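Build the 3D complex.
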Amino acid sequence: MSHRDDTEFWACPHGRDARQGCVTCYEEAVDPDLALPLWDVAVWFTSERPIPVKALQDVHRHGRRFLLDKLSAPHIYLLTGHSHAAGGGQAVAGVVGFLVHNQHVVDEFVVRDTRAVRLSPPPNLSSGERVWP
Ligand SMILES: [Zn+2]
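Done.
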């Protein structure tokens, strides 16, 4: 079994699975503690219904630091954003939490893959601490 299947590994500080998103993590990231590490987060997800182009373009206005792109494969989208968080799980939970919080953009989605790369403090860190998971 890999750590990717481990629910404890994926739990955010509020006990939610980061891949399901956590609105509390998202809301905390709106007014973050800037002393926390900064993460560059990418979330690949599929949407039950196509997301209108206008909604894709509007995301950066709602989310300030978020971008939503449609990939060439059908129904696959990539959400990227920066987030201050103590750990990668919390950073991912907050970015997926943006989707949960903005159901007018995406009503039904399934997260397929995630990646969080720690941007700061600048990496004198091993890749295990810098790239999550
Ligand atoms: Zn949370």
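DSSP finds five helices and five strands in the chain.
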